[in-house]
Write a structure and sequence with these properties.
The complex is a heterodimer of chains A (about 775) and B (about 180). Chain A has about 775 residues and is an alpha+beta fold. In chain A, strands 3-7-1-14-11-12-13 form a 7-stranded mixed beta sheet, with helices on both faces. In chain A, strands 9-17-16-15-10-31 form a 6-stranded mixed beta sheet. Chain A has a 4-stranded mixed beta sheet with strand order 20-28-29-30, with helices on both faces. With about 180 residues, chain B is α+β, with helices and mostly antiparallel strands. In chain B, α2 (about 90-95) crosses α5. Classes of the chains: A alpha+beta (about 775), B alpha+beta (about 180).
C-alpha cells in the first residue's frame, strides 16, 4: 500500500468552531450539580475549626435526631473498612504520612473533614452538621515552613521528622568552581504566596449504587476518570471493573481536579452502604479550604556569571509550605521538586545545585496547579537575571539572548538532565521584542522615568515540558510514569467515526482537536466524526487530562489508530470496488480511486461490512474498531517569551498592565483559536498570581481568605488585551504537537514580576515578595516600612 | 414566621405558582424546583456572577435573592434566550463563534450581563465592555474572547439595524 495521501485540505491548523461548546452556550451542559437521580440523598461535611487539634470527642447524637437526617458518618466508623490515603512513596520522602478520609484522633488543618452528614436535602444536612459537637484540644500549629523544619518545631505527623514530607539535594557540574571563579555572583530572595486554582465550579460528585452492571458509578467533576476508578476500587476493596467513573461537564480543572480527595471517596462509601445515590457539591467556602492549594514558596537563588552575563552556575534553596498532607496521589513533591529541578528553564546552565524541601504545616495540602513549580522557578531566576543585567549594564533582553539555548545546539542536555530539542527559544524572544518595538519602549521608559513616572518592562522566557512520555515521571520522585494514553476509533455502521478516549475536557475542546486530527488522517468528513472522552465505560484505558499532555497523547493515538483503520478500510474498499488498495484514497467520507473512476461512500462500505459479512472474505473484515496506545517516550518542550509593560502608581502602589506581548512555540497547532484561548487564559491566571491572588493564614493557622471578596482573581479590568504571536516549530511527537495549557502561566508570573521590579528600580526600589499587592509595592518603594 | 410561602412568577415566559421554603434562594428555586440547571452557582455570595439572571429586565444575582422575593417577577434565565424556533440568541451565537467560553461555567451569567449591556448601550467600546464584565468572573478565557464576542454581537446588531433601515438608537455613538 502506498503511503501517499490525497487529502484536499488539512483541517489541522484551522480554527473550526467546536460544536461541543453549543450545549454550554444554550444552558444545557450537565455539570455534577445538575445530575439528579431517583432517591438521591445529599451530603454535607463538618469541617475542623482548628488548624491543629486532638479530637477528644465527636458527639453526633443531636445531628442524628434531626428530621430528614439519614446518617452521620465519623472517621471511627471508617476505620478498618476502607484504606486511608497513605502518602504516595517518593524517593525523596521525609516519612510516611497518613490521611484518614474523615479525621480520627487529630485534625491537621482548618477545613479538614471530620463528619459526613447524609440527609434528604442539602439544607438539612448542613443544619445537622451544625448540631455535631466536637471537643477539640488545640495543639500548637506549624504555619511557616522555615520554622517548621527546625528541631524544636511541633510535628504535624509524628512519622515525619522536622516536618519534612519531601527533601532533596542535587548537584551537577562543578558548582563551587564556577562560583569561585565567576566575574559576578548575585543572590536574591523570592517569595510567592499561597494560591489556589479557583475553578469557577467547585468539586463535587454523585455516587450511585448498582447503576447498570456497575456496583458503583461516580459522576465527578474531575480530570482523571480512570485514575479515580482505580483508586476508589482499591480503597473500597472493590474489583475495578465494578466501578464506572464519568467526568461530568467540568467547570475548570487546572490541576485542582487531578488529585484524589477524601470527600468523593466518602460519598462512594455512603452510596454503597446506603444502597442509594448520594450527591455532594462543594460550596465556595469549603472550596477555599478543602481543595488543594498551590505555590507558597520561599526561594533563595544565587547565580555565578561571567563578564558577558553568561550563566556559569545556579544554586538555589527552596522551601515549600506543602500543607498538612501529602496530596494523594501526586505526593508532596510536586512543587518542591519541580521548582528546584526546573530552575534553569530555557537557559544554558552547565552547573547547578539545589536543596529543596516540602515542609508539612497545618494548612490545606498543596497539590498540582497549572504549571506546577515553574512559575516560581522562572520568576525567581528572571528577577535574578535582571539584577545581573543591571550590574553588568546589559539590557535585560540582551542578557537573555546570550543565555537561551539556540536551536543549533539542540539536542541540548541541561544541568538538570533535561534534553531540549525542536524548540524556538530565541525566535520567540526576537518576535516579542520586534512586535513590541522594544528599543522604543525602553526609550519611552527612560523619558517617563526622568519625569518621575514609574514604568516597568518585564521580559521573561520560559520552557515548558509537555506531553511527557514513559521516560519521564509526571510526579517527580514517585513511580507515576503513565506516559501513554489510548484512543479507540470505531467506524459505525453508518460510516461515521466514533473516537473514544479517557481524556476529558475542562474547556480545552479536546474532542474537536481529536476529530480534526482524525479527519486529516482518514479523509472522513468532520460532520461524520464524534468523540467520547469522559466515561470509563466507553473509553479505552487512559490517564486523563493534566500536565499539558492531552492534545499530544490523544492526537498521537488517533494518528496511530487511524493508520491501521485506514489500511482496513482501503483493503475492504479495494475488494468491493475490485481495484488495488494502492489506487484508493478517502476524500470527504468517500473511498475513491485516484482517478475518481470508481467510488463508494464509507457509509456503504461500513454497512456492507456489518450487515453483509457473508459476502466478504473474513480476513478483509476484521472489524473496523482499532485501539492504539501512544507513547511519545520523551516530552516535548514548548516555549515562549513574554513582555509585560506596567505603570506603578507611587502614591497607591497600584500596578496597571498597559501592554502585554507574548510569542509562543507550541508546536503544530490543531485549532489555533482554541490554542490562543489556552495561552491567553494561562496568562490571565499568571497575572493574578503575580499581582492579586493570595491565600492568607494567621499565625494560628486560621485562613483569612475564604470568600471571593477576600481572595481576588483577575476581572476583565485587570487583564489587558494580550497581543499574541506564534513562533511554532513542530515537536518530535506524532503530528508535531506540543502541549499549550500551562507555559503561558509561567511566562506571565515572571514577566509581570520583572516588570514591577523594573518599575520600582526606576526609583531605586525593589520587590521580593509576590503577589505585588499595593502594600508590598509601597514597601518596595520605601514608602511603607 | 411561616416556613413556607406561596409565590407566583414568570420564568422564560412560562407562569409558575409554587409553595417554597422562605429560606430558599432564588438560584436554588430555579435549579431545583424548576429544573432549569443552566443557571450556575459559583460562590453563593454574590461575587462571581455565574448565577446572574434577568429579573424584570434587569440583571440580578439569583444567589443573593430569596425565591419569595421573586413573587410576581418576570425572570429570564439562559434557557430563555433562544427564540421559540430554537434559534440561538445573537449573543449566544457570538460567544460560540468567538470562542468566548471554555469550561462554560461562567457563561450563563456572562450572557445575561452582556445582553443587558447591549440593551443599555448598543455600541460599547472595549473599556465599557470590560467594566461591565468586571462583575462576572471567568477563570478560563482571560476575558479576551468574551470581549471579542460582545464587540462582534454589537457590530452584528448594528449592521442588521442599518440594513433594515431602522433609525439608529440614540444610545449609539456612531463608531464603525
Amino acid at each position: 500500500m502506498s503511503d501517499a495521501r490525497f487529502v484536499n485540505l488539512r483541517i489541522v491548523g484551522t480554527s473550526v468552531l467546536p460544536d461541543e461548546a453549543i450545549p454550554l452556550v444554550e444552558g444545557e451542559g450537565r455539570f455534577v450539580n445538575d445530575i439528579r437521580l431517583p432517591g438521591m440523598y445529599h451530603v454535607a461535611f463538618l469541617r475542623s475549626q482548628h488548624a491543629h487539634a486532638r479530637l477528644r470527642s465527636v458527639d453526633t447524637n443531636r445531628a442524628q435526631e434531626l428530621p430528614g437526617v439519614v446518617k452521620v458518618l465519623t472517621g471511627k466508623e471508617l476505620l478498618g473498612k476502607v484504606e486511608p490515603f497513605r502518602s504516595m512513596p517518593n524517593r525523596f520522602s521525609g516519612g510516611e504520612s497518613v490521611q484518614h478520609w474523615l479525621a480520627v484522633d487529630k485534625v491537621r488543618f482548618c477545613g479538614e473533614a471530620i463528619c459526613a452528614v447524609v440527609a434528604e436535602d442539602r439544607a438539612t444536612a448542613e443544619d445537622a452538621a451544625e448540631l455535631i459537637e466536637v471537643d477539640y484540644e488545640p495543639l500548637p500549629a506549624v504555619t511557616d515552613p522555615r520554622l517548621g523544619e527546625r528541631d524544636d518545631a511541633p510535628l504535624v505527623h509524628d512519622t515525619c521528622p522536622n516536618n519534612y514530607l519531601i527533601k532533596r539535594e542535587y548537584q551537577r557540574g562543578n558548582v563551587d568552581e564556577a562560583f569561585g571563579s565567576a566575574h559576578l555572583v548575585v543572590k536574591r530572595k523570592f517569595r510567592i504566596g499561597r494560591k489556589q486554582a479557583l475553578c469557577l465550579e467547585p468539586r463535587g460528585c454523585v455516587a450511585a449504587y448498582r447503576d447498570s452492571t456497575f456496583v458503583l458509578t461516580m459522576w465527578m467533576s474531575h480530570q482523571l476518570p480512570y485514575v479515580v476508578r482505580h483508586y476508589v476500587a482499591k480503597h473500597l476493596r472493590l474489583p475495578e471493573n465494578d466501578v464506572r467513573v464519568v467526568a461530568a461537564d467540568t467547570g475548570g480543572g487546572f490541576g485542582q481536579k487531578a488529585s484524589i480527595y477524601p470527600e468523593e471517596f466518602v460519598c462512594a462509601y455512603l452510596a454503597l452502604g446506603l444502597r442509594r445515590p448520594v450527591k455532594w457539591v462543594e460550596d465556595r467556602l469549603e472550596n477555599m479550604v478543602a481543595s488543594t492549594h498551590a505555590r507558597d514558596q520561599y526561594i533563595e537563588i544565587e547565580i555565578a556569571a561571567d563578564r558577558d552575563g553568561r550563566i556559569l552556575a545556579l544554586s538555589s534553596d527552596v522551601w515549600v509550605d506543602v500543607g498538612a498532607y501529602s496530596t494523594y496521589l501526586w505526593s508532596a513533591g510536586m512543587e518542591p521538586l519541580q521548582t528546584a529541578g526546573l530552575m534553569p528553564g530555557p537557559y544554558k546552565v552547565a552547573a547547578m545545585r539545589y536543596r529543596t524541601r516540602g515542609v508539612a504545616t497545618n494548612k490545606t495540602p498543596v497539590g498540582p496547579y497549572r504549571a506546577v513549580g515553574r512559575p516560581s522557578a522562572s520568576a525567581s531566576l528572571e528577577l535574578l537575571l535582571d539584577e545581573v543585567a543591571r550590574r553588568l549594564k546589559l539590557d535585560p533582553a540582551e542578557m537573555r539572548r546570550r543565555n537561551l539555548i539556540p536551536i543549533e545546539s539542540m539536542p541540548y542536555r541541561n544541568a538538570n538532565n533535561l534534553v531540549h530539542d525542536n524548540v524556538n527559544y530565541l525566535p520567540c524572544l526576537k518576535l516579542s521584542t520586534a512586535k513590541i518595538d522594544y528599543e522604543r519602549l525602553r526609550a519611552e521608559q527612560r523619558e517617563l522615568s526622568a519625569g518621575g513616572k514609574l514604568r516597568g518592562i518585564g521580559v521573561a522566557c520560559f520552557a515548558e515540558l509537555t506531553g511527557l512520555g514513559t521516560t519521564t515521571a509526571v510526579g517527580p520522585g514517585t513511580l507515576l510514569q503513565p506516559g501513554r494514553d489510548a484512543v479507540t476509533l470505531r467506524l459505525e455502521t453508518t460510516g461515521v467515526l466514533t473516537i473514544a478516549a479517557a481524556l476529558p475536557s475542562q474547556g480545552q475542546r479536546i474532542m474537536m482537536a481529536m476529530r480534526q486530527v482524525a479527519v486529516d488522517e482518514l479523509g472522513i468528513g468532520l460532520s461524520d466524526t464524534n468523540c467520547l472522552t469522559n466515561d470509563t465505560a466507553m473509553a479505552p484505558y487512559g490517564f486523563g487530562t493534566f500536565a499539558s499532555r492531552t492534545a499530544v497523547f490523544g492526537s498521537g493515538a488517533v494518528i496511530q489508530a487511524a493508520k491501521e483503520l485506514r489500511r482496513r478500510i482501503l483493503a475492504l474498499g479495494a475488494f468491493l470496488l475490485k481495484v488495488s488498495a494502492d489506487d484508493l484514497t478517502i476524500v470527504n467520507s468517500v473511498i475513491q480511486t485516484v482517478d475518481r473512476s470508481k467510488s463508494m461512500p464509507l457509509r456503504e462500505m461500513a454497512e456492507k461490512s456489518y450487515f453483509s459479512a457473508k459476502d466478504i472474505p473474513q480476513e478483509l473484515n476484521p472489524g473496523f474498531e482499532v485501539t492504539s496506545f501512544y507513547d511519545p517516550k520523551l516530552g516535548s518542550f514548548a516555549a515562549g517569551a513574554h513582555i509585560a509593560v506596567v505603570d506603578v502608581d507611587p502614591q497607591t502602589g497600584d500596578v496597571k498592565i498597559i501592554r502585554y506581548v507574548a510569542s509562543e512555540d507550541v508546536g503544530t497547532m490543531i485549532n489555533p483559536a482554541v490554542v490562543e484561548g489556552q495561552i491567553i487564559g494561562g496568562i490571565a491566571q499568571g497575572i493574578g498570581e503575580a499581582l492579586l491572588e493570595e491565600l492568607v493564614y494567621d499565625e494560628n493557622g486560621q485562613p483569612r481568605t475564604v470568600t471571593l471578596a477576600d481572595y481576588l482573581i483577575p476581572t476583565a479590568l485587570e487583564i489587558p488585551r494580550i497581543e499574541l504571536h506564534h513562533a511554532n516549530t513542530p515537536s518530535a511527537a506524532l503530528g508535531g504537537f506540543k502541549g499549550c495549557g500551562e507555559g503561558s502561566t509561567t511566562g506571565a508570573v515572571a514577566a509581570v514580576a520583572c516588570a514591577v521590579a523594573d518599575a520600582l528600580n526606576q526609583r531605586g526600589g525593589d520587590i521580593h515578595e509576590f503577589p505585588a499587592t499595593p502594600e508590598r509595592v509601597l514597601k518596595g518603594l520605601g514608602v511603607l516600612t | 414566621m411561616a416556613r413556607e410561602q406561596r409565590i407566583q412568577l414568570t420564568v422564560n415566559g412560562k407562569s409558575y405558582e409554587k409553595t417554597v421554603p422562605v429560606r430558599l434562594s432564588l438560584a436554588d428555586f430555579i435549579r431545583e424546583h424548576l429544573h432549569l440547571t443552566g443557571t450556575h452557582l459559583g460562590c453563593e455570595h454574590g461575587v462571581c456572577g455565574a448565577c446572574t439572571i434577568l429579573v424584570n429586565g434587569r440583571s440580578a444575582r439569583s444567589c443573593l435573592m430569596l425565591a419569595v422575593q421573586a413573587d410576581g417577577a418576570d425572570i429570564v434565565t439562559i434557557e430563555g434566550l433562544r427564540a421559540e424556533d430554537g434559534t440561538r440568541h445573537p449573543m449566544q451565537e457570538a460567544f460560540h463563534e468567538n470562542f468566548g467560553l471554555q469550561c462554560g461555567y461562567c457563561t450563563p451569567g456572562m450572557l445575561i450581563t452582556t445582553i443587558e449591556l447591549l440593551q443599555d448601550n448598543p455600541n460599547p467600546d472595549e473599556q465599557e465592555i470590560r467594566e461591565t464584565l468586571s462583575g462576572n468572573l471567568c477563570r478560563c478565557t482571560g476575558y479576551q474572547s468574551i470581549v471579542n464576542a460582545v464587540l462582534a454581537a454589537a457590530r452584528k446588531a448594528q449592521s442588521v439595524e442599518n440594513e433594515t433601515g431602522r433609525a439608529q438608537k440614540t444610545g449609539s455613538r456612531g463608531k464603525p
